[in-house]
Amino acid sequence: MPVGSAREILRRLHDVMAARSPAQAKLDEVVRVIAEGLGSDVASIYLRRDGVLELRATRGLKQEAVHVTRLAVGEGLVGTIAETKAPLSLAEAREHPRFAYRPETGEERFHSFAGVPIVHREAAIGVLCVQHVRPRTYDDVEIEVLQTVAMVLAELIAAAGLVDQSAAPPRPVETGPVRLDGLRLVDGIARGVAVFHQPRLPIERRVADDVAIEHARIERALATLRAQIDQMVSRAEFAGPGDHDEILETYRMFALDEGWVRRIHTAIEGGLTAEAAIDSVAQAQRIRLEASRDPYLRERIHDLEDLSNRLIRILAGRADTAAALGLSQESILIARNLGPAELLEYDRRYLKGVALEEGSLTAHVTIIARAMGVPMLGRIRNLRERVSEGDPLILDATAGALHVRPSPALLKAFAAQKAALARREAEFRALRGLPAETRDGVRIALYVNAGLRSDLDALEATGAEGIGLFRTEFQFLVSATLPRLGRQVELYRSVLEAAGERPVVFRTVDIGGDKAVPYLGDRDGGEENPAMGWRALRLSLERRGLLAAQARALLLAAAGRELRLMFPMITEPWEFLEARAVVEEARRRLEARGRPLPQKILYGAMLEVPALADLLDELLPRIDFLSIGTNDLTQFLMAADRGNPKVAARYDWLSRGVLRYLARVVAAADQAGVPVTVCGEMGGRTLEALALAAIGVRRLSITPAAVGPVKAMLRSVTLAPIAERVAQWLDTPGCQLREALRAEAERQGARL
Ligand code: PEP
Ligand code: MG
Questions:
Q1: What is the residue with the minimal CA distance to atom 4 of ligand 1?
Q2: How far is the C-alpha of 242 from the C-alpha of 236, rounded, in Å?
Q3: Relative to the CA of 536, which ligand 1 atom is closest?
Q4: In this structure, is residue 660 part of a structural domain?
Q5: Separation CA 42–CA 64 (nearest Å)
Q6: Do 392 and 454 lie in a common domain?
Q7: Sheet of 42-49, strand order
Q8: Is 283 among the domain residues?
């Protein structure tokens, strides 16, 4: 199937569909054109009729099968393609588990099969497939040609009135209050009107009249796109190095990506308009990336779609994202997904929340929303169908709900909730300068967890004593390429400067697992259990260059002051020793070159892997501090995935098993005189923080928003009797510690 033939096929298809002949005659002609053009033994079109895929025309299969062979969506190869909206190609069709043999077609002679969905307005209205007698494989280029043909075919079928309405039934218009559930991405509550980020521009013309003109149009549009991105980069708000800058760099990279541009030109070469070519390339890319098991790659779909949509708008001469038109009232943004740069374009005064049909915790856009303090809810099914532009909304991201057209009672509850939040926040602000000290005089040092430059403001705002965990991998996650040494130094230096006299604990990168970055390679298709896989220090010790470069950056950034450094996911003490040796070697090399160095380096270990606790006698004498990462530790102790809602109830920080374990570790560290911090999310929950204090933890590093509530709680309790009780409960079989602790705290009038 030569690519050049696509254009000829498209030209002929266009003529066929434009002819004044009956629909069936047109389809018969279409399959003939496709089989001849692609040199296949069979070309068939299945179209949906009353919801079922019916063979409507074939060249190569028996004609008696036309209108007879019918497959439900999900049935057979054709039904699978319609169901998944993804192409399927097989050298030996009958080996596929879904293969459904239909004797009337006479298809037993044909071994290989390739099919693509015919998609119209995001619904699969049919399937186009080819077959060959000879077993053969189909390459990516061939599938791309089929997709291009199917895309044009979809338009022509729609124009001929052959689209089955059951493929995309008209949606009933809802007018009453509705609650939509979603995944909590960034906590918070907000109220505003629904603003659609981007009414997708309909592509009116798909088949080009003059290919040369389309090539020229796309070149002009690309030039405008690049200029727009340059402008975003230089815009004052985002000027200067930082995470936003890194993201825009990713965009620039895509916009200059020769592969992307080349594929668009190829599609134009195949007879499409510039708009249709962009759309076709984006769809093909989307399907390919969606099939990838690498979450990082899947996130890139949105960067690419962001750019594709932008390009289509440029071609249409319509700058009509809601951001470009400007928000004029408090708004909740509605989108399938957003590119991070697109989010950054909104006026923060009016942007109160974001609701997405897709979205994930590690997406760039989520990281940015968190940094902007904009609540965000993701994975809301059929969001754009169930919400209309201008609908009043309440976004309760913390509760995982979007209330559409909320009832008066809900609006009242929202106002009360908002007022209570504001009061609480004011109270927390008043505590800013006061110590986190219990009524009986036990002081707990509160530090914050950070990872982005924008998190640094939290230090001042919360009055925290320092940064107890700086997750250095965030910089790696928001970057399309390995952050260069200069960039790393610059970030670490700005963190230290913002902290001033306060200590900062840098954690070396915890990349891998669900925090994959594409540029480190070796991920061959994903891991069964990524959290327990090749990540964190395991990866760093194999990629010594990476660790050494990071060590250099940290040493240079901390010149003249103290550097606190810790390593994630240590399982055995030798890993700590090796990692430290890499840093020491980097230090010696810099020293030999006369570079200024830190006055002192403190080395810490993270305890996240349960087995390490049994080797503490060997580890403790060698480390300066210990930090317990309860997020990971708990999932390994309880064998309950920290991200899986189905086992969330088992992932219980206040179970006796977890607390006894922690108590042992804290006692061992105390005895060895090694300071210990808890830096997982556990310490940011009031009841959990109280339990930790009760078992002897005196340092917590927590999410900035938790500093106020945890401090207020600590200042409201008398710890000694609680500590005594907790010790008893830990020894009481069957004790429901969570309930018992809550009751005891409430009895004291604690602010939980
Ligand atoms: C932890 O596991 O508790 C931790 C602090 O590390 P992270 O959440 O980054 O895995
Ligand atoms: Mg961890």
A1: 629
A2: 13
A3: 10
A4: yes
A5: 15
A6: no
A7: 70-71, 52-59, 42-49, 123-132, 112-120, 88-90
A8: yes
The question of whether 364 is a catalytic residue gets the answer yes
pLDDT, residue 356, reads: 94
629 CA distance to ligand 2 middle (Å): 5
52-59 and 70-71 beta bridge pairing: antiparallel
**Tally of domains within the chain:** 4
Residue 97 is encoded by which pair of tokens?
């588990």
Query: Helix (H, G, I), strand (E, B), or coil: what is residue 433?
Result: coil
CA distances from 403 to 334, 353, 565 (A): 13, 12, 45
CA of 609 to the centre of ligand 2 (A): 9
Residues 260 and 388 in one domain: no
Ligand 1 centroid–CA 97 distance in Å is 41
pLDDT attached to residue 452: 75
What is the DSSP pairing of strand 112-120 with strand 88-90?
A: antiparallel
Mutate-to-test residue for ligand 1 from 470, 471, 515, 688, highest number of ligand atoms within 8 A of CB: 471
For the chain, 752 residues long, the average pLDDT of each consecutive 10-residue run is 65 78 88 91 94 95 96 95 90 93 92 92 87 90 82 77 69 79 90 86 80 93 86 50 54 74 82 86 72 66 74 82 86 86 83 90 71 88 87 94 95 91 88 96 96 81 94 79 90 95 96 71 64 92 94 98 98 98 98 97 98 98 97 94 76 96 98 97 94 98 90 97 98 96 97 92
What's the DSSP call for residue 443? B
Domain boundaries, position 542: 436-747
Q: Is 679 a catalytic residue?
A: yes
The reported pLDDT for the residue numbered 10 is: 78
Residue 229 sits in a domain whose CATH number is: 1.10.274.10
- pLDDT (0 to 100) of residue 149: 83
Domain with 48 in it: what CATH number? 3.30.450.40
Q: What is the pLDDT of residue 707?
A: 93
Whether the Cβ atoms of residue 448 and residue 702 lie closer than 8 Å to each other: yes
Which of residues 405, 424, 444 is at a domain's end? 405
Question: Is 76 in the same domain as 124?
Answer: yes
Contact 628, 678 (CB under 8 A): yes
Same domain, 259 and 386: no
**Domain end point (choices 273, 290, 316):** 316
Which residues have CB under 6 Å of ligand 1?
469, 471, 510, 608, 629-632, 679-680
Q: Is residue 127, in this structure, part of any structural domain at all?
A: yes
pLDDT at 521 (0 to 100): 59
**Ligand 1: nearest atom to the Cα of 608:** 2
Helix H or strand E segment including 634: helix 630-638
Instruction: Judge contact between 185 and 361, C-beta under 8 A.
Output: yes
CA-based R_g, the chain, Å = 30
One domain, residues 601 and 538: yes
Would you give the distance in Å from CA 662 to the centre of its chain?
32
Task: Establish if 410 belongs to a structural domain.
Answer: no
Best CA proximity match to 344, nearest among 199, 191, 254, 233: 233
Same-domain pairing of 305 and 259: yes
Does one domain contain both 304 and 277? yes
**Any idea what the CATH number is for the domain that residue 400 is in?**
3.50.30.10
> Exactly one of 132, 244, 302, 364 is catalytic; which is it?
364
Residues 10 and 136 occupy one common structural domain:
yes
pLDDT on residue 305: 72
Q: Name, in order, each residue with C-beta under 8 angstroms of 405's C-beta and a sequence gap of 6 or more.
A: 175, 176, 177, 178, 391, 392, 393
Q: What does the DSSP assignment read for 350-412?
A: TEEEEEESS--TTSHHHHHHHHHT--EEE--TTHHHH--TT-EEEEETTTTEEEES--HHHHH
Query: Of the ligands numbered here, which is closest to the C-alpha atom of 633?
Result: 1
Compute the distance between CA of residue 466 and CA of residue 461 in angstroms, rounded to an integer.
Answer: 12
Measure the CA–CA gap between 586 and 592, rounded to whole angstroms.
10
Residue 649 CA from chain centroid, whole number = 24
